[in-house]
Amino acid sequence: MRPPRKSRPQDAPSWKRRAEERAVHPRDHDGPVVLYGLHSVVEALRNPRRTPIRLLATENAAARLAEAGVGDRIVPEIVRPSAIDRLLTPDAVHQGLYLEAEALEIPTLATIPADGLVLVLDQITDPHNVGAIVRTAAAYAVDAIVTTARHSPEATGVLAKAASGGLEHAPLVLVQNLARALQQLGERGFFRVGLDSEGPASLDETALDGRGLALVLGAEGKGLRQLTRETCDALARLDMPGAIKSLNVSNAAAIALHVARRARRS
After folding, report:
1. Among residues of the chain, what percentage have pLDDT more than 70?
2. CB burial class (10 A; 0-12, 13-18, 19+) of residue 245?
3. Region Disordered: what ranges (predicted)?
């Protein structure tokens, strides 16, 4: 009798090979993503790292893609708006564009530049808020947005629309344990600042020098979790001179990034 054939890597079940590939090349979403709306689709088609799979477009929308210089990236299926309506929720504003594309490969904590600017999201679950944060992060050239693989919205659909193309420029870093990720950033020399309305000093008064900086934001209402707070190097507040002292988390992120960029320039 022949000896049993030794198994080779390619003999592994397809689901196991896919899992191994994800471990080596993690992605910001498991499976294809759905992108809709002009800005989201145009930025995705401009991104050489994003692989388009299927594009539905109305005649007018296809013409707008051509005007934007991305009309030759993938041949669209010309459809009526109602065909896209049926694929999305009733309140989705798709502007005649619907794109299915491969998820993006994402960086790891180790690949973030040592002097980088990072946002860390502590269980912020609303996709509109996260999408708005991603859009702001892209505007301020944030090097990465660190969030947990669980307790965070997926990088597709509503989040991608709210990000308005920001997902192509502000990469997500998905981690299993946020406190451990903050510890790793600290070991790499990052200064970790938790935004807290009861912080002992304002962010303007906090020394934000040229080393790596991680700004940590908590969910609206709940704020930072206790372990997250304890893992930060400092807690800082955003001083509001007006009658209302609290902000939507995406607005707080924008102000914090403005303060951080100004401090790091000076």
Report:
1. 89
2. exposed
3. 1-26
